[in-house]
Amino acid sequence: MDALTTSNLKDTLRLEKKRASTTEENWDKMNRSTYNLIRSYLTQDIKYHVLHETSARQLWEILEKKYLTKSIESRLQLKSKLYGFQMQRGCSVNEQLNRYTKFLIDLINVDVEISEENKTIILLNSLPREEYEKFTLTLLNGGKSLNYSEVSDALVSYETRRHDRLSSSESTTAETLAVRGRSSNRKGRDDQERSKSRSGFRDLKRNQCTLCKKLGH
Predict the structure, then answer these.
(1) Torsion sign over Cα 186, 191, 192, 196
(2) Same structural domain for residues 92 and 159?
(3) Helix, strand or coil for residue 128?
């Protein structure tokens, strides 16, 4: 429609009849120009469905009935999915950002644009609270407007640091368990040796020499 407005051809779609000041010849030229302009934006499969249509106005009405309703439905469905967007279990931050970017692109394709602040709020609300609450609150309480690009970069950095801390903690825990295991094994061997030693003494008779096993000296 913007292209028609720029070309001063919008009247051919809006008016059922030509204006009194417009000659029949000019009206026919406008109709043909509008018709050709609309067809230039159609894909081959859509052109096939309007192959025999010659009136620009009727061509436009057919396209509106066939595709505008679908566009409205798609827009509402996408917006519904967007506002209910949540991070899936096991999904990484990069995967979440990729899914979110696809949603935003799909919305742009149906003429819906989300403000920077709203894009950011929806992204933050999609994160699991138990893992990202501190990160989210820090940004929301920062006292400045939210920029989506800056927040998404900060989220990736935060996720990297979080994984590094978890890996370090797991490594420390594993090393601690290994040390405890080695200490336990050594203690077990020492106890076993002491038990054998005590057992040897118990087997000796009274007044029996521990070296030669003879009695009385």
Answers:
(1) positive
(2) yes
(3) coil
